[in-house]
Design brief:
This protein is α/β, with parallel strands linked by helices and 603 residues long. The protein folds into four domains: 237 residues, Rossmann fold (3-Layer(aba) Sandwich); 101 residues, no CATH class; 166 residues, 3-Layer(aba) Sandwich (Rossmann fold); 63 residues, no CATH class. It has 24 helices and 20 strands. Strand 19 and strand 20 form a beta hairpin. Keywords: ATP-binding, Cell membrane, Membrane, Nucleotide-binding, Translocase, Transport.
């Protein structure tokens, strides 16, 4: 075997003041041309491991460091971050902090120029070509979409022509189409340009499609390094750690009678179609009298539209809403901003919307569709260019946000943006103190209990895990008992296990808030939680309905820059009678015989 490109030997690291090391005797090798995914639950040491590669640990993040790093066969001891970064490009989770110059070309040239390389401009232009940004070289950074900014951060890393590229959470804040674009570029860099790629990733579907090997981190230790198929079909082991293989893999695992004997589960929808087809044929051959097949598709290939009780329930809900007064009313809303060239750039165009008490509303659409802008108008953070926004019969236009804070809570995408105190208890109390509420102490205790924060009450919220920080931010917002709560990407940067917990946390809001609105790209969360889905594209609302109506329209999802979950796609491929959005629905539809539910081989 060739000499490793990068090698860690018995590396341990402890942050100052921490009781336990965040890395414990980790040994790891990276071969030239590999495409590696680093997985693990929040706090398992994934990002800390990768920050050892370019010397950020221990040279920038100080602490107790032991062990050895070798890069290109040479010890990295005594080498500075700047020396190691010539060989290792890093795109961080908060990638926007890497963009430091006003225009695209200025920014991509910044690093090689900073190193004093004479061909800095040629390097920058080549990096823009590799990432598909050549046509935007003269654009200002603030004019770019989230996906374009992420590509620019990647281009900035590529400008140094590194041997290794490390990307922390490549798709965390991106819509599905931009997420796939990022991974297609990474694949091209790996296969055609010889770059060794390391991604820190929670989305198993992308790992299955693009990566070659997987490193599992658990409690600061490297548990194993395996080829991607062997890694992702270790279903029971991964689930025990709160790590979720692809949905189609889990569905097959649930329906496999002898899980100990079978490990060749499907990783993709195409593999899933073949796997479930073979399983059905085997089951029917064993018991011809009870032969079962997948339901026939309708003439256009789409599952049948729900009827009966589901249709009646939807109709009754619509009647109830039409008789109620809306909590939020938006009429002919327009929003534009003036560019540096003094032209108006439209963000929202002619939006009409009414929101009612008891609704769980999901705003979906691609990056730049206008979701966050719409929520900021409701909260009074932004003033519309035209039209009227009303919340609880109060006209919001131009009203200071603090005047609305008792009836509207806006929870930012980054929870730490809301933290000002040095304890969780203090964070919740701070907003209540400002309102001089007589029952402040009782409300704080109520929020600590409702969001399971009692044991964290005296901890600094900025030092908590991502999922814990989300719970704190929701407790802060819910404490004032607003009529409307607005959440921007509540599951961004969370592992899948913590995302699933967020569904339960959102349910905890029901007793404290009349209406909850989330802007998200997380289709699994939308399918499980939302009672109403609003689809946005290019500043307009292009669809508004329940999950059956929205998810059964594949053309609509593509137009909005979204993608079906694996279970939705599998529902179509298997011609199931409904679009399934949860494993329970899917295993019932795809695994049963004559309508019976089968889980793990037991009926």
């Amino acid at each position: 075997m060739d000499k490793p490109l990068l090698e860690l030997s018995n590396v341990s690291f402890t942050y100052p003041g921490a009781e336990q090391p965040v890395l414990q005797e980790v040994s790891f090798t990276l071969q030239q041309g590999d495409f590696v995914a680093v997985i693990g639950s929040n706090g398992s040491g994934k990002s800390t491991l990768c920050k050892c590669f370019n010397g950020l640990i221990p040279h920038y993040y100080t602490g107790d460091f032991e062990g050895e790093l070798k890069l290109l066969g040479e010890s990295a001891e005594g080498k500075r971050v700047s020396e190691l970064s010539r060989h290792i490009g890093y795109v961080y989770q908060d990638f926007e902090n890497q963009l430091v110059r006003p225009t695209v070309l200025d920014d991509v040239c910044f690093t090689p120029l900073n190193y004093g390389l004479a061909d800095y401009r040629e390097r920058g232009q080549r990096a823009l070509e590799l990432t598909g940004l050549s046509g935007l070289s003269r654009e200002f950074i603030w004019q770019l979409s989230g996906g374009q900014k992420h590509l620019l951060a990647l281009a900035g890393a590529l400008a140094m022509d590194p041997d290794i590229l490390v990307i922390d959470e490549p798709v965390a804040q991106l819509d599905p189409q931009h997420a796939r674009q990022i991974y297609e570029i990474l694949r091209r860099l790996n296969e055609h340009h010889g770059k060794t790629i390391v991604v820190i990733e929670h989305h198993a579907e992308f790992i299955a499609e693009y990566c070659r090997s997987v490193v599992l981190m658990d409690g600061g230790r490297l548990r194993w390094q395996k080829p991607v198929r062997e890694a992702l079909t270790s279903v029971e082991e991964l689930l025990a750690l709160g790590i979720y293989p692809p949905d189609v893999t889990r569905a097959a695992w649930l329906l496999q009678p002898d899980r100990q004997a079978a490990g060749n589960y499907p990783l993709s929808c195409e593999e899933g179609r073949a796997w479930f087809g073979r399983r059905t044929a085997a089951v029917n051959a064993a018991d011809p009298a009870n032969a079962w097949s997948f339901a026939a598709a309708s003439s256009d290939g789409a599952p049948a539209v729900p009827t009966g009780a589901a249709a009646r329930a939807a109709t009754e809900a619509a009647v109830n809403l039409s008789a109620a007064e809306p909590i939020v009313r938006m009429e002919q809303i327009r929003l534009s901003y003036r560019t540096i060239h003094k032209t108006l750039q439209p963000v929202l165009s002619g939006v009409n919307l009414e929101l009612y008490a008891g609704e769980r509303v999901a705003l979906i659409g691609n990056n730049g569709a206008g979701k966050s802008s719409l929520m900021k108008l409701i909260a009074g953070i932004t003033v519309p260019t035209g039209g009227t926004v009303q919340v609880k019969d109060i006209t919001v236009n131009g009203l200071p946000p603090e005047r609305l804070s008792d009836i509207v809570s806006y929870v930012f995408q980054n929870p730490e943006d809301m933290f000002i105190d040095d304890s969780v208890r203090g964070e919740i109390a701070y907003y209540l103190k400002a309102r001089k509420l007589a029952d402040m102490d009782a409300r704080v205790e109520e929020m600590l209990q409702a969001f399971r924060l009692q044991e964290l009450a005296e901890r600094d919220a900025r030092l908590l895990s991502g999922g814990q920080q989300r719970r704190v931010s929701l407790a802060i917002g819910a404490a004032v008992r607003p009529a409307v709560m607005l959440l921007d990407e509540p599951t961004a940067n969370l592992d899948i296990s913590t995302k699933q917990e967020m569904t339960r946390v959102l349910e905890a809001l029901r007793g404290h808030v009349e209406t909850v609105v989330i802007a998200t790209h997380d289709m699994a969360l939308v399918a499980e939680w939302a009672s109403r889905i609003i689809v946005m594209s290019e500043g307009r609302i292009i669809a508004d309905g329940d999950k059956e109506a929205i998810f059964s329209d594949g053309q609509l999802l593509r137009r909005a820059g979204l993608a079906e979950t694996q279970l939705m796609e599998m529902s179509r491929l298997l011609n199931l009678p409904q679009i399934c959005s949860s494993l329970k629905e899917f295993t019932a539809a795809a695994g049963g015989r004559k309508g019976e539910l089968v889980h793990g081989g037991s009926r």
